């Protein structure tokens, strides 16, 4: 219908349709906004508040536990040289350390189900810090290995609790806060080598080790600050209001996109396809032939053959009966009675014997069955008990997750290679002919480059939002090239320091992203179990391949072979990760994108 308003012709039907369409869309928008989504632990994460104190506690703990590790070889360098087994001592200490580290990480998941985070964390801090002081008084590499055995258990509790609590407090700001915290933690790589270099001439290596160990007691203070996330979680009303705001923003963006679309493609099932499906159904039904007649014929033949056999058997039994009657007719009646009585007695005795035998066998069978049932019940109960314990320690869904296991193995190989290189870097510098001052300088240069790289990484993640596992893969590839550069340029001081700076810069991208790689796609409930499984895999990799690399160094006596072995260890899982990102992550991203487009199309049809 067309009407004239102020001299202008207006199509009122079109206007009414547009108004109705707008009202229907508005109603749909309100319905979508008012829908209550499921609230998860990720939604309740504070993303601030006491979370900033958790970040500060994590910095204090990591600074006093990880920071001195870069100076360990500087302090005990002469001790290792005097033992004449630097490679064996390194591999032995790392192996026993990783064994107890993995056990503690697995037990943390069970302990957190029974106790709060702070008591478990304080115990772990004490178990690590006290042996860290006692290690100053070791007399041989075996006593050092025993101290590392105890320290590994404490550090396993510390790291698992620290990472679990931190990741529970932060979800949206997790990567940014982690990278910024790692910048401050990276200062330890600069401060502690310089501090140890100044303290060694004054206090000696034992006094210096005792002072550095005493500083690790600050981790107890950090653990006291680790409040459970439930104490500071967001309120449900605030979370629902925030979700409603996010929905309103997303829907407004979707409406803007839907207005730009002019047509919507629809797919209809063709008549030819329907006709072909009906024909195939008809042919399928006609192809079913009854076989009742043939079955009846075969059955009749079998019945006839059975009846003939029965008639033949009756004829034979009749002839036998006639012969027996003829033979027994000549016997007298009394003798027959006696024979019958004797036969009856014998048969009754035999029957009684068989009955007693069957009864005894049945009783024995009952007893055996009862014993077997009890044994089976005990075995089943033991198996159930072990399964329950295993489920408390390990989340089996993660063990069956191939992508998660692939990430854990890749992180373990790369971190084991990096730790082996950085641990013996001062010794490699002294073996190349440089004095100890340059060995300490190399550690300081690496720490400065690492700190600068962490700052750049923090700025980079503020601008570009990218997953940690992709950064870790890129850093792994770059680390291989940087190590090759050091292998080729270590004979000159300038080339060695430049390549060490490059290695330190790339290392920061590995160390910062490593705690986030394995839990990036998991729920908060699985964080502790994920770190436990990763620690077990890391310990296996360190024990097996770390020992092999240490044996190669002691057997060949060559630092170049040692570096080549570490290069191979660093690059083992580059190809599996690339394949996973292409065939799993990329396909998943495309599928999610297609689903999002389809949902938007169906919402506004």
Task: Give a concise summary.
The chain is mainly alpha-helical and 605 residues long. It has a domain of 380 residues: Growth Hormone, Chain: A (Up-down Bundle).
Can you put this structure into words, describing what you see?
The chain is mostly helical and 605 residues long. The protein has a domain at 41-241 and 394-572: Growth Hormone, Chain: A. Helix content is 82%, strand content 1%. It has helices spanning 12-34, 41-44, 51-65, 72-83, 86-114, 117-134, 141-169, 174-185, 188-215, 218-224, 236-260, 271-286, 292-328, 333-393, 396-399, 402-423, 425-431, 436-463, 468-489, 493-517, 527-556, 559-571, 574-603; strands spanning 2-5, 8-11. Strands 1-2 form a two-stranded antiparallel sheet. Helix 8 runs antiparallel to helix 20 (493-517) and helix 21 packs antiparallel against helix 22 (559-571). The longest helix is centred in the middle third of the chain and has 61 residues, at 333-393. The radius of gyration is 40 Å and the shape is globular. 34% of the residues are buried. The model is unreliable at 262-275 and 284-310 (pLDDT under 50). It comes from Acromyrmex charruanus. The chain crosses the membrane at residues 50-76, 88-108, 120-138, 144-165, 177-195, 207-226, 402-425, 437-463, 470-489, 495-519, 531-552, 564-586. GO terms for molecular function: monocarboxylic acid transmembrane transporter activity. This is MOT9 protein. Keywords: Membrane, Transmembrane, Transmembrane helix.
């Amino acid at each position: 219908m067309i009407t004239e308003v102020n001299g202008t012709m207006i199509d009122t039907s079109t206007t009414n349709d547009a108004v109705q369409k707008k009202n229907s869309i508005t109603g749909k928008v309100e319905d979508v906004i008012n829908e209550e989504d499921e609230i998860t632990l990720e939604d309740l994460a504070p993303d601030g508040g006491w979370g900033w104190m958790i970040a500060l506690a994590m910095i204090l703990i990591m600074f006093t536990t990880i920071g001195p590790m870069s100076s360990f070889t500087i302090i005990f360098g002469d001790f290792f040289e005097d033992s004449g087994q630097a490679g064996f001592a390194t591999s032995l200490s790392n192996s026993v350390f990783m064994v107890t580290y993995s056990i503690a990480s697995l037990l943390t998941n069970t302990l957190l189900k029974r106790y709060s985070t702070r008591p478990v964390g304080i115990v772990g801090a004490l178990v690590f810090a006290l042996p860290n002081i006692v290690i100053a008084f070791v007399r041989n590499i075996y006593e050092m290995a025993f101290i590392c055995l105890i320290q590994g258990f404490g550090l396993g509790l510390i790291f698992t609790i620290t990472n679990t609590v931190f990741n529970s407090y932060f979800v949206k700001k997790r990567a940014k806060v982690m990278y910024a915290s790692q910048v401050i933690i990276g200062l330890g790589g600069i401060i502690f080598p310089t501090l140890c270099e100044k303290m060694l001439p004054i206090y000696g290596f034992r006094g210096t080790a005792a002072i550095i160990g005493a500083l690790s007691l600050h981790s107890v203070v950090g653990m006291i600050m680790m409040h459970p996330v439930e104490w500071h979680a967001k309120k449900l009303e605030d979370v629902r209001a925030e979700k409603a705001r996010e929905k309103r923003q997303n829907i407004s963006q979707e409406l803007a996109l839907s207005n730009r679309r002019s047509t919507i493609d629809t797919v209809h099932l063709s008549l030819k396809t329907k006709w072909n499906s009906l024909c195939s159904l008809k042919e399928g039904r006609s192809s079913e032939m009854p076989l009742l007649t043939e079955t009846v014929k075969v059955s009749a033949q079998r019945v006839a053959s059975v009846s003939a056999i029965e008639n033949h058997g009756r004829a034979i039994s009749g002839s036998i009966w006639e012969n027996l009657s003829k033979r027994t007719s000549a016997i007298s009646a009394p003798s027959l009675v006696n024979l019958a009585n004797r036969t009856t007695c014998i048969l009754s005795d035999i029957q009684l014997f068989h009955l007693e035998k069957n009864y005894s066998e049945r009783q024995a069978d009952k007893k055996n069955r009862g014993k077997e049932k009890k044994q089976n019940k005990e075995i089943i109960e033991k198996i159930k008990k072990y399964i329950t314990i295993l489920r408390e320690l390990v989340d089996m869904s993660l063990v069956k997750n191939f992508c998660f296991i692939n990430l854990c193995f890749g992180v373990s190989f790369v971190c084991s290679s990096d730790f082996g290189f950085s641990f013996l870097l001062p010794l490699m510098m002294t073996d190349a002919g440089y004095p100890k001052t340059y060995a300490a300088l190399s550690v300081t240069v690496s720490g400065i480059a690492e700190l600068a790289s962490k700052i750049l990484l923090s700025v980079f993640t503020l601008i570009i939002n990218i997953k940690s596992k992709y950064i870790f893969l890129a850093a792994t590839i770059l680390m291989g090239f940087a190590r090759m550069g050091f292998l080729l340029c270590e004979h000159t001081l300038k080339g060695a320091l430049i390549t060490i700076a490059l290695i330190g810069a790339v290392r920061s991208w590995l160390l910062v992203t490593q705690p986030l790689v394995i839990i990036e796609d998991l729920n908060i409930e699985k964080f502790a179990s994920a770190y436990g499984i990763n620690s077990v895999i890391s310990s296996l990799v360190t024990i097996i391949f770390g020992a092999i690399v240490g044996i190669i160094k002691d057997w060949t006596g060559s630092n170049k072979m040692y570096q080549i072995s570490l290069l191979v260890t660093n690059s083992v899982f580059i190809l599996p990760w690339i394949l996973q990102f292409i065939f799993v992550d990329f396909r998943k991203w495309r599928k999610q994108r297609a689903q999002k487009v389809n949902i938007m199309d169906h919402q506004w049809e």
